[in-house]
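Q: What would this chain look like folded?
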Amino acid sequence: FAPSFDSCLSRETADRSAGSIGSSQKGGEGMATAGEEMVDGEGAPVPGEGAPVEGVEGGEQQVGEAEAAAAAAEAAEEEIPSQAEVAKISRMQSIDPQDLPMTYSTNSEEEKLVLEYVENFRRQFVQLYPERKELLLCPRNECGVEKFICTSIRPTQLEYNELYDLQACATFVAEHIQYEALADPVVLPMYVPSPTSVLQWQIGDCIDKSIVLASLLIGVGYDAYVVIGYADQTTCLADETKSELPAANANGKGMRNGSVREGGGDDEKKEGYEVKQRPVLDSNFVMTQDKLVRLDEEMVRKELTPADNDGNNEEDAAAEDPLNGLRIHCWVLVRAGKREMAEDIFVEASTGNTCPTDESPYLGIEAVFNHKNYWVDMQQCPVKKMRFALDDFQSWEFVFMESTVAAPKAQNDEDTKPEGGDGQQADSTVAMQGTEEIRESDHVLDLPPSWVERLFIDRALFLQRYAKENDEVKKTKDYRKSRVELFAENSLKHGMVQRITVFSDLARTNAVEVQEVFANRKDKLRKRVRYYKPGTQIQIGQPESLIQEYFDPGRPDALMELVEMPDGREFTFYHMATLDGMVKRIETFTRNRAPTKNFAMHKVIETFEGHEQRLNYRSITFEPIDPNTDAPQVKLQIEHPRKMTHKFDRNPEVEADKDLRKRTFFTGLRPPKIHLVFHYGQDRITAATRTYTTEKTINGDNFIMSEYVVDPFAKPMK
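A: My prediction, written as structure tokens:
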């Protein structure tokens, strides 16, 4: 018989208050067997079904504990549940057990035997280690039925190839499932729903998300475990506002003004020889005097300004957490060995971040578990120094005796000598005896298969990617002086999938840069970066100081990058896709451009590569326009240039004195002229030139040609 969800829910808060009573028994008390007392998933006796515990001295202590439990239950009924707890309870109440498989609402005979076995383990653990915290062993699922926590993991490999790697799975769980903190940060939850329900709700706490992530990682071949332990407030709340923006969120490119930008950074190694700078020679006496002056100025400044308002002090001004070291948290451990994992790492299911176990931010570990067994940590050391050799009986206490447990490594001859006197031989003997007992056991209780259905994500939800946030399908992450907004593909009309806003202040009010990433656009726009003047708030219609746009291949004009500045524009092309081999086009204006007025063109520079006429450079300079007058249309400005220059590469098949290198048209001069410059010949320091001038006379236009020939004995050019 499975208890109804409502009956279990009415005792939830009472069981939380009374659950610690069972774990407060001292080591001298006797241990009851699993069949002598019916207990709930948290170890608290169920009202009306409890039996006296053997070994308790006198009946007064038992009566006192019963009265304390009743008083705690009455006080708990008056407590108002938190908003997160109410939301989780309402989600579970909305489920009809008849719509779920029978394994969700009932327990098989094998599962009942496992629950009895686990309860016996819990009693022995409480008696041997009364000072240890409570273990999360058999919470209730969404149907109100107690289930062993290991059977809640359902290894599954989804049909999507994108979810085959560790980082891809971690990022998907962090983005697809909305994170909510535990209802009580220092008390283990009474209910742990199945991963199928968590994926359906798209919301869950650290335990729910860790179980989902472990199910996916084990399904694709990783040696993953769910870890139950303790973390600081920042980690438990998934607060990344004090962390720097990860480079992966901005394609891992270079940096510009403290933000991410396309192209290489300044820290790249420069090739070639660099002249070393001469050292600056300073006087020790002068340096000492300057240091004393600075110290005096610092003392005066501190006296005049009682409070320092620097950004670093604002960040460090947070109050100390009174629950530091007590906050319960859950994450995932991936051990080395499988899938070419070189080292053990931790995966934070709430954010998708990974870190080595020796660099973890976590404060403590109580237990780890997977779909096969449950291990309790027995190491008295920080998390960074822990060893995760789960077959080490001295470091980890297991619940189920697996027949495949590896024997401890044999000690060397010196460790096995009886003269050691350090207890190593005794510990090794005990460990070997425990292994022999496991191997010689006639019957080892096997863990039943998972009661959870195979995980499934509809393709529409998979493509949607993110959970709803304020009635909008997106994911928002706040970092230090930055904010990241993620959108599902094709959910917005303009195709935006990511927006990164970089701020100049910790309050994230004054934006200096906005990065927008697009997908599936007809114009092939991939990314746009807007730069604003520091210290100004972005408003609708506010002009940017710089705009950069990046395009994928496939545009008819072969445009690759566009940079728009107030006084000009810069176009970069895929030159192999252009007809004339144009690489770059730079336009400069005589004054800053205005959205409603024509550009006042000043100069246009174009560079080429692979041109059929060996053209590599072309520039056009325009007549200056009065700043107080409106500029004509760009087409009219191009038709009346002031100067035009062409440059050509060397043609080895033509003599240098006849191979044109530069051609300049001076159309703004009176009279206009054309100036030609040819390539330098071998061992020549001068080049041949020719100038054509047009003069108007009474008889018509008179063309005058003047030239300079490097070789005076050469034949004159035609």
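The mean pLDDT is 76.
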